[in-house]
Design goal:
CATH topology: UDP N-Acetylglucosamine Acyltransferase, domain 1
Order of helices and strands: EEEEEEEEEEEEEEEEEEEEEEEHHHE
Number of domains: 1
Strand content: 25-35%
Radius of gyration: 17 Å
Largest sheet: 10 strands, mixed
Number of helices: 3
Length: about 200
């Protein structure tokens, strides 16, 4: 399904394959011989999404951009089922496995890998040929790659990155509930922009 959003429609190379139940929305460009498989969602909300040549986006992966964070996928990139990739830069020959999550402002350099359920946090740079093990978290620049049980160590790096401010433009409040109320207000206002979407 191709969708016009905020006056922008997807541009798809004639050699690409888009599964009939994939959703491609807004200012999205898809290159030669790229394959977008069943159930994938590629949603540009204000920012752009560029997907290069010879890429594969497998079932139910979600790729997103926002006004502040466009998404650029280079060439020969494989994105596995149920992966979540938002507002980041992915260089050539990168492998993003099943269930992996790549967040705003991150960069995956050439030949890097994020294995099953791995996470690359905001503003993190994964260097060439570096990998995130199954279920581990990459965070910071320079990057640290930590197992999930090291939550306190992860939080020491994560807190100053200020996820609410960087991603949502919301100041972190002393009370988590107040921060979430601000995030939800911003999100509902942003997603209201889909009211005038038009299926092509």
């Amino acid at each position: 399904m191709l969708i016009n959003h905020l006056g922008k429609s997807p541009i798809i190379d004639a050699t690409a394959f888009i599964a009939p139940n994939a959703a491609i929305c807004g200012d999205v460009k898809i290159g030669r011989n790229t394959r977008i498989m069943y159930g994938a969602s590629i949603i540009a909300e204000g920012g752009t999404i560029e997907i290069g040549d010879d890429c594969v986006v497998l079932e139910n992966a979600v790729l997103r951009s926002t006004v502040k964070h466009s998404l650029k996928i280079s060439n020969k990139v494989l994105i596995g089922p149920n992966a979540h990739v938002v507002g980041c830069t992915v260089d050539d020959n990168v492998f993003i496995a099943t269930g992996a999550s790549i967040f705003h402002g991150a960069k995956l350099c050439r030949g890097s890998e994020v294995r099953i359920n791995g996470v690359v946090h905001i503003k993190t740079i994964l260097q060439e040929n570096q990998f995130v093990p199954i279920g581990w978290i990459a965070i910071g620049n320079p990057v640290e790659i930590l197992p999930p049980e090291k939550h306190d160590d992860i939080w020491k790096i994560q807190k100053p990155l200020d996820f609410p401010e960087y991603v949502y433009g919301v100041n972190r409040e002393d009370e988590q509930e107040n921060t979430m109320l601000q995030v939800m207000k911003m999100m509902t206002n942003t997603l209201k922009s889909h009211e005038n979407d038009r299926v092509l």
